[in-house]
């Protein structure tokens, strides 16, 4: 799963404080040991884009009473717990040592604890979703399935330089965009908005999530190690060939031949730097950016179907703000 790009949805400071407080409370148990493990990445911080998206989506109808705000925060937290739990599992699969500037749970406590803590977060997410009604509970369950499907699609093409672009798009739709779509849809559901509005919010969340992941994958190529907080080109090293890499290969020519000669296996530092230079200096990044712009346009089009409101304005502006991080 992705790390967050250098971006955040604009929101009120009160919303963020409520989200942080409720998120911490959601994983509290009588067991101090489990508390420490389950809250490890939560305490480490994060942009909280998914719960913010839920809260903003709930406000597009122009209503924001105390009960609605509470339900929106809870729905957003359910999505954030799914995301965090999936990160616990991802770090085990990737044998990662750090996440959000701290040791991963698997590095600090071991793989078994990380897997079980991830499962615990997913169970808490499901419990919260159930408290919001059967439709939200079913939606979140389906979304967890889509995350798994997207991750499996990525894994089956690891180190495959012939990975089809359709595989990449299908993978990021499942492992990233689906959770943004669900976050936005839950906002509409808890606000009891009209079905066409709820569907438009879902379309928006899916499109925004696609922009988010493509931007994140572009940053892995174009940003510095310092900006990312980890080595650039990590995806290529791990055999995950994202859109800018695929587009560089599709363009053909000398650059594609040179890049192809490097891929298909783990890369050492010199090979990684050479591969990064090839992708950065050819058309792969710009053409991938064009795909991100297409998804941003879809998100903006979905906003045209929403009621006019300050929350709708926030949603409309967010995709272009995300693109501006590149």
Describe the overall structure:
By secondary structure, this protein is an all-alpha fold. It contains 17 helices and two strands. It has helices spanning 13-26, 32-38, 40-43, 49-58, 66-94, 105-109, 111-131, 134-155, 165-190, 195-222, 225-228, 234-237, 243-251, 253-262, 269-281, 284-303, 310-323; strands spanning 98-99, 102-103. Strands 1-2 form a two-stranded antiparallel sheet. The radius of gyration is 20 Å and the shape is globular. The relative contact order is 0.12.
Instruction: Specify the CATH architecture.
Output: Orthogonal Bundle
Shape: globular
Query: How many beta-strand runs?
Result: 2
Along the chain, the helix and strand elements come as: HHHHHEEHHHHHHHHHHHH
Runs in which pLDDT lies below 50 for 5 or more consecutive residues are 1-6
Give Rg in angstroms: 20 Å
Largest sheet: 2 strands, antiparallel
Share of residues in strands: under 5%
CATH class: Mainly Alpha
| Quaternary status | single chain
CATH superfamily: Farnesyl Diphosphate Synthase
Per the CATH scheme, the topology name is Farnesyl Diphosphate Synthase
Count up the domains: 1
Major beta sheet, strand line-up: 1-2
Mean pLDDT: 91
Q: Strand pairing plus helix content: what structural class?
A: mainly alpha
In short:
This protein is mostly helical and 326 residues long. Helices cover 74% and strands 1% of the residues. The chain has a single domain, classed as Farnesyl Diphosphate Synthase (Orthogonal Bundle).
What labels would you give this structure?
Farnesyl Diphosphate Synthase, mainly alpha, 2 strands, 74% helix, 17 helices, single chain, 326 residues, two-stranded antiparallel ribbon, disordered N terminus
């Amino acid at each position: 799963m992705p790390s967050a790009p250098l971006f955040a949805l604009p929101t009120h400071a009160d919303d963020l404080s409520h989200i942080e407080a409720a998120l911490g409370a959601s994983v509290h148990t009588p067991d101090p040991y489990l508390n420490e493990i389950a809250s490890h990445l939560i305490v480490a911080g994060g942009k909280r884009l998914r719960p913010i998206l839920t809260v903003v989506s709930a406000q597009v109808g122009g209503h924001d009473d105390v009960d609605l705000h509470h339900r929106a925060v809870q729905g957003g937290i359910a999505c954030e717990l799914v995301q965090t739990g999936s990160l616990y599992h991802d770090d085990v699969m990737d044998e990662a040592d750090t996440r959000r500037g701290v040791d991963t749970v698997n590095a600090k406590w071991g793989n078994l604890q990380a897997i079980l803590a991830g499962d615990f977060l997913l169970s808490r997410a499901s419990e919260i979703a159930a408290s919001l009604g059967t439709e939200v509970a079913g939606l979140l369950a389906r979304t967890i399935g889509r995350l798994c499907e997207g991750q499996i699609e990525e894994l089956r093409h690891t180190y495959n330089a012939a990975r089809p672009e359709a595989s990449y798009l299908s993978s990021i739709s499942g492992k990233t965009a689906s959770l943004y779509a669900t976050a936005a849809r839950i906002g509409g559901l808890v606000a009891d908005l009209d079905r066409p509005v709820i569907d438009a919010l879902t379309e928006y969340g899916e499109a925004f999530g696609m922009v988010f992941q493509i931007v994140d994958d572009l940053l892995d190529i174009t940003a510095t190690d310092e900006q990312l907080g980890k080595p650039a080109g990590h995806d290529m090293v791990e055999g995950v060939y994202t859109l800018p890499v695929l587009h560089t290969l599709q363009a053909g020519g000398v650059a594609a031949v040179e890049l192809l000669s490097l891929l298909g296996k783990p890369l050492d530092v010199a090979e990684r730097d050479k591969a990064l230079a090839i992708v950065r200096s050819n058309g792969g990044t710009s053409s991938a950016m064009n795909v991100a712009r297409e998804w941003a346009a879809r998100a903006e089009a979905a906003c045209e179907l929403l009621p006019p409101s300050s929350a709708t304005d926030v949603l409309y502006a967010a995709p272009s703000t995300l693109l501006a991080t590149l």
